[in-house]
Design brief:
- The chain is α/β, with parallel strands linked by helices.
- Helix content is 39%, strand content 12%.
- Strands 1-3-2-4-6-5-10-11-9-7-8 form an eleven-stranded mixed β-sheet, with helices on both faces.
- Strand 7, helix 9 and strand 8 form a beta-alpha-beta unit.
- Helix 2 runs antiparallel to helix 3, helix 7 packs antiparallel against helix 16 and helix 8 runs parallel beside helix 16.
- The radius of gyration is 21 Å and the shape is globular.
Length: 473
Amino acid sequence: MRLTMSDPIENLSLSAIGQALRDGSVTAVGLTQHCIDHHEPSLNAYREWTPDQAIGQAQAADEAFANAQDAGALQGIPISVKDLYGVNDTQTFAGSPAPMPPPWQSEGDLIKGLRARQAVFSGKTHTVEFAFGGLGVNSHWGTPRNPWDADTHRVPGGSSSGAGVSLCEGTALVALGSDTAGSVRIPASMTGNVGLKTSYGRWPVSGIFPLSPSLDTAGILTKSVADTVIAFSAIDPHQRSYGPRLAREVARCSPSDFVIGTGESALWDGCEPGICEAVEDALNTLGQAGVKTVSAQLPEAAPAIELLGVGSVVAAEIDEMLSSTAPQWRDTLDPIVSSRIRDGGSISAGEYLHRHRRLRELSRSAAQRFSECQVMVSPTVAITPPVIDDVQTIETYRPKNMGALRNTCPANYLGLCAITLPVGLDASRMPVGLQLIAPHGREEQLLAVATCVEGVLGSGRDRLGIPPLLRRN
């Protein structure tokens, strides 16, 4: 059955779609088929595209609706899943050329929860091999194409490289990713979407192939902050206990109710042309609407970025993971990934423990920096998405990868939560994200502020339009 709604699905929020599913003006099968019809194979968003399974899940969601069984806001909603998550009847490759060992093929708590809520899984989206990279490059499966450049293949951001592309093409309304140093926010920013990095430990990471157990977090990408609020409320295990708190925070927040800290130079200096300008323009608009800003700083960001440069604890942890559980995968590693693991994975136990201690010290210190503001702001990504041909060697890849991860890694390393929302285009006409960072466990406050910001600035579609590669007559 096809859609019968008068407004194009691309213009509707998750809230509106959910209402349409419940009043019968659209079916889950119709919605899912609409998304399937928008699949653009040339963009290469998916490692495993599963339209037949999606239709079957949509039929089950419709049957549940027909029997007055309402499993929540994501019932019947197409969701793409990063190829680190175990999902029944699919295989998990984690960006490598072969399936992962059995432990990483099983569904974890997040996927089980979404299945119980009658969500629809559109397929497994591409990831950088073992999620170890911020640009989205993968030599085994090919790199998804960023739809914002109609003429040249640019990277989509990583490591959740297919996630943002799946939203752009319209095959998913929510995308599941993971974020260890920016892997949700970077692809969201580079493709003009919203990306939420949850606080460490807030969401379970069972059933997700681990890059760094010390830092891994699950997260979501959506087309708007409003959709993020809906999806977060449906997924977050804490909402069962105090769900109304998020609704209250969002409902009562107005531009005059919060303060944004703007003063951390480590996250502003050296951005490529048009990036700071787009974020500053957004801040000016917010200021005119009554949003207060202060020059609050986050001095822990600079040492966090220094840790990124030497591999933090990430390289050592993925090095140990491969040695212990999947040693044969070393022989087929992408050379770029292999070089990063080799450089950071060979440190001594003493150095590894020192880096852990340093991360704890920085996190404790950073937690004290929000006394004058509720959130801090920066450009999400300091570089424009590179052309794929310009990052094919280790020598050309590394500086761009560092540039992509520079502004996002502090939230992970300092134990914070963060969100990116699209606010403009840079000098290369590629999307620019505005990053909001909040203390650990303050997702409700972060989402309330982001909702206010989006209310003033408009959605990404309002500010950016449609990606050039997807403009249809």
